[in-house]
Amino acid sequence: MSSDEIKAEVVDIILEFLEVTIHNILYVRKLYPDVIYTLKKKYGVSVYQLIHPDLVKYIEECLKAVAFNIRNRQLKKLFICFEEDDTIIDTFVIDILSITQLSNRNQYLVDFENNLRDFMLKLHSNRYYFKEIKSGEARFSIHLQTTTLSHLEFNKIPQYESFPWILDNQLKDHLDLSIDTSMSIVPIHKIEADFLKLQIYVEK
């Protein structure tokens, strides 16, 4: 590991937080029936977790790419896009402002429990702002904004060959506010921890 890489401890903490976030965003959007979720405790709060094996596997594969880019300080944004009739109807954006090494683990635990609790309350209270998904063909997808170099390096690693990432110009156009002036932003939450600063919002 180079001296500039983010340590594994920090990567694992962020991955766990992002995994919980993705699962609960999917629950809030009601893309799938409630029976494929289970309720569990995480960081002292009740959260929802998917139990459908295909969906869990997809999220796990996506998080491998997230881990690679966090470790190399190349992750800029994570997008969770919801599509209906081949049109993106809204996108949850996790905007990574900064990631540093962890200096105080005990304080992290306190801060993150409070942050996650606040975020979950905001997430579930904001669900009524989102367009109802009606089509049985609706789906979601996860996208990352990194660098071209990081994208190429990740796809060269043999252990990731079964789940390659591709460039998505359609998503780029959708998220360019200068192209789509009708797009609105719904702020959800902002985290300012010792080692992590990010903001979460919805573009729709």
From TrEMBL:
- Coiled coil feature spans: none
Q: Which residues form the signal peptide?
A: none
All copies of the HORMA domain together span 8-202
- InterPro entries associated with the record: HORMA_dom, HORMA_dom_sf, Mad2-like
Q: What is this protein called?
A: HORMA domain-containing protein
Source species, please?
Answer: Hypothenemus hampei
